[in-house]
Inverse folding.
């Protein structure tokens, strides 16, 4: 099994939002007001990602809060024409995007030690055809709140599944993409498991996928244990059993490529707080998704087999 299990990693949980805008681009709040809003709300970190701009945000950090600089960049799309929206986390210099291939833009991000997130593919109309030629990104936005609040196109789960099946291990991130002051803030976040709240620890946890995404419900624990199943001709196959504990929700889904997952719904108008899945032979990846009665969800990162 490959993939970090944050629920069985030592450390504390830190809530953060990886995508936000200020008046430096098209956001409604100044940099100082954007950061103080997230600090006041109890967040542990916020990444400022103004379109095409990088700002020095270091003076917005506190002992219990990290201000992380970043940008949202828009290289041209030679495949379908619709510009890419790529969030760069932890960069300090602007990224050149004019007459630059998206892969070169990502190389610039990585050359600064940053990480690239492919943003809101559903809202962009991007499919696997737009993402297959792209190299070096570390995550896809599985949910983007501003896209949800404006036109109901916030959820990009099926694109993430295609990426996991056809490209390989990429993390899922739920983010506000906050532009305003109330409609698209504090709705979507990641919970990062890290030994402490320092820039080094939080960025390391991000890079290794030691986090999960949520719109509200919490995943409490995921246990992965070796087990065996019988194959078609009676042979013994080594595999894994995955057990999940979570807040009371209406369903727990175990998602893998094609038919290999399983679905645990709440019964008789009740709630479900745990579920189990035995990883089937041929499974490439498996991720956990929980959904509350109000449609609010949480997503684990994928485990690879
Ligand atoms: Zn965008
Ligand atoms: Zn944005």
């Amino acid at each position: 099994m490959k993939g970090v299990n944050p629920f069985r990693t030592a450390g504390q949980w830190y809530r953060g939002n990886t995508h936000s805008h200020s008046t430096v681009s098209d956001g409604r709040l100044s940099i100082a007001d954007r950061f103080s809003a997230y600090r006041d709300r109890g967040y542990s970190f916020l990444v400022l990602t103004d379109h095409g701009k990088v700002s020095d945000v270091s003076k917005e950090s506190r002992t219990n809060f990290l201000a992380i600089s970043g940008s949202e960049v828009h290289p041209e799309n030679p495949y379908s024409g619709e510009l890419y929206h790529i969030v760069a986390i932890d960069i300090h210099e602007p990224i050149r995007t004019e007459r630059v291939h998206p892969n070169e833009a990502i190389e610039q991000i990585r050359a600064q030690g940053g990480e690239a997130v492919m943003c809101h593919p559903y809202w962009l109309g991007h499919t696997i055809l737009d993402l297959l030629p792209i190299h070096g990104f570390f995550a896809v936005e599985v949910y983007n709140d501003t896209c949800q609040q404006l036109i109901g196109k916030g959820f990009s789960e099926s694109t993430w599944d295609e990426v996991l099946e056809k490209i390989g291990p990429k993390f899922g991130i739920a983010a506000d993409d906050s532009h305003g002051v109330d409609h698209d803030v504090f709705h979507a976040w990641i919970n990062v498991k890290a030994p402490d709240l320092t820039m080094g620890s939080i960025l390391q946890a991000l890079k290794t996928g030691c986090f999960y995404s949520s719109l509200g419900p919490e995943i409490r624990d995921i246990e992965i244990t070796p087990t065996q199943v019988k194959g078609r001709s009676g042979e013994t196959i080594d595999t894994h059993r995955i057990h999940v504990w979570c807040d009371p929700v209406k369903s727990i889904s175990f998602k893998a490529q094609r038919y290999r997952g399983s679905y645990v719904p709440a019964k008789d108008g009740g709630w479900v707080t745990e579920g189990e899945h035995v990883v089937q032979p041929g499974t490439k990846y498996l991720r956990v998704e929980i959904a509350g009665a109000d449609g609010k969800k949480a997503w684990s990162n994928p485990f690879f087999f």
About this structure: Residues 19, 21, 72, 177 surround zinc ion (ligand 2) (CB under 6 Å).
